[in-house]
Automatic annotation (TrEMBL):
Keyword Disulfide bond applies: no
Residue intervals of the Transketolase N-terminal domain: 24-226
Top-level taxon in the UniProt lineage: Bacteria
The protein's name: Transketolase
InterPro entries linked to this entry: THDP-binding, Transketolase_N
Coiled coil feature spans: none
Cofactors required: thiamine diphosphate
Family: Belongs to the transketolase family.
One Pfam assignment: Transketolase_N
UniProt lineage: Bacteria, Bacillati, Actinomycetota, Actinomycetes, Streptosporangiales
Keywords associated with the record: Thiamine pyrophosphate
Organism expressing this protein natively: Nocardiopsis ansamitocini
Keyword flag ATP-binding: no
GO MF, one example: magnesium ion binding
């Protein structure tokens, strides 16, 4: 798939606009566009040229309502062709309603039910360490409702005990947890000995600082505060 690199934050709204249909979840995608951009533009050591390098950083999209923002950033960074955004969700398009790692360059995991991503992140970090690539960073983007899943709780509990300092959980706090746990996200991670940081969802410098802050030998949880309530 040929790629056209735009590499400008200002291009992202137009790229999201190329994706059409009622499955785009425009509001939810808007809440994560900034953090995705900061990750790919300023934090992650990953590019189209290194997308198959065993030592590359990994980004895992667990939050199910963000493929529009994710595809837009991948197009801006040259992983996929901009023209492909127009056909997303169509029968013969590689860009499905959920990203497919076998079809989309740069995608590390295929999307599915909420709650799987953090466990996959733990496994990925363990695998990289076993292969001698323990310095490669693994970043998982989650929604606050996913923290209500038992699989997420188990992953949170295991990560610090396994010393997975390369693992970062980025949690979008959109106050949508049906169990009322939104707003208390840092406490959940801190109780399990994670380092915790918080940042507003639109402030790129604050997001960058939170994502790159020293956290010793512990995994890092970054809570991203959004301005409105959106699902997952």
């Amino acid at each position: 798939m040929p790629a056209t690199t735009l590499s400008r934050y200002a291009d992202l709204p137009a790229l999201v606009g190329l994706l059409t249909g009622n499955k785009k979840h425009q509001a939810a995608a808007t809440t994560t566009l900034d953090v995705l951009w900061v990750l790919y533009d300023r934090v992650l050591d990953i590019s189209p040229a290194t997308a198959t390098d065993p030592a590359r950083d990994r980004f895992l999209l667990s939050r199910g309502h963000d493929p529009a923002a994710y595809y837009a950033v991948l197009a801006a960074k040259g992983f996929i062709d901009t023209a492909a955004l127009r056909s997303w969700g169509e029968f013969d398009s590689p860009l499905g309603r959920r990203p497919d790692r076998t079809l989309v360059p740069g995608v590390e995991i295929s999307g599915g039910s909420p709650g799987h991503g953090l466990g996959l992140g733990v496994g990925t970090a363990l695998g990289l360490r076993a292969q001698g690539h323990g310095a490669a960073r693994v970043v998982v983007l989650l929604g606050d409702t996913e923290l209500d899943e038992g699989s997420s709780h188990e992953a949170i509990t295991a990560a610090a005990r396994l010393g997975l300092s390369a693992l970062t959980a980025v949690v979008i706090d959109s106050r949508s947890s049906p169990l009322g746990r939104s707003g208390k996200i840092p406490d959940r991670f801190a109780r399990e000995d994670w380092a915790t940081r918080s940042a507003p969802g639109r402030d790129h410098d604050a997001l960058h600082q939170a994502l790159t802050a020293p956290h010793e030998s512990r995994p890092l949880a970054v809570t991203v505060r959004t301005a409105a309530r959106h699902p997952r």
